[in-house]
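Example record

One chain of 318 residues, shown exactly as stored in the release files.
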Amino acid sequence: MAIAKAERLMNLALCLLGTRRPLSKRELRGSIEAYMEAGNDESFNRMFERDKDDLRELGLVIETVENLDGETGYLARRDSNRLPPVSLDAEEAAALGLAAKVWQQARLAGAASGALQKLRAGGMPEAEDPYEGQHSAIEPRIPVHEAAFEPLMLACRDRRPVVFDYRKSTAARPEARQVEPWALECWRGHWYLAGYDRERGAERVFRLSRITGKVRSRAAKYTAEVPDVVTVRETVASWAGESADRSALIRLRAGAGYPLRAKATAVREGGDGWDELEIPYGHGLDAWLVEFGPDVVVVGPADLRADVVDRLRAVARA
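Predicted structure tokens for this chain:
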């Protein structure tokens, strides 16, 4: 953030916190130097609206009040912006410190570290790190490499519909999806979004690594009710074949496909550089097998083999 903008935001926050009555845009413009220097009313209005939104994003509760003359005013009441005293014991402080470290690889690292510093400044005790000196062996991390993660996390928090391009594993090109996002969850090293797909009129789960381009938010209300409990993990598991009621026979190259080996109910050495595995077969298993490329050959059943071949051909055409 540029110094000029930081100073402008600070001055606006002080004006809104220091007043006992709502201040109009006209009064705020006459009190803050940066607003006085705005070229015209349109420039000032754009600047003020952005600053007001930024302060709200930072957590300042700004009220909009209309007086008897119909003029709109703004203020930030101190009682609405005052937090109760922070009272944490050593174990709670350690838990927060550990939680902050989880996000060190994500773009949330700065926010998590800043929040921890504010809590310590407010009286949170310094706690011993139980993982100090053991980071090479045990280190809590949530891998977040997808650019879509942060805008989707904010959209879930703010309950804002989003639009993004999504490429299914069987499709050669991505297609636009309009989604009301509910929750994000990490499963088997991949991030997934659960939400309501407006065009399909049903719940859907999207893998973030298959979202292409930018995630664009929309200023509109949700049209579908958000479930009290969003079971992202269970939904993804069912689509990945975890709720299987059959068994599939595959050939797997020796020394490859360890996730498949962990899932197998039986493993037989083939002696020719390949092993035979029996694995649970349910909806979505074909998409998972395709990820292992030439290291996997499906022996049966025939419908699973056909689905895998179709997916591979789609990828080859892309």
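Notes: Confidence is low (pLDDT under 50) at residues 130-138.
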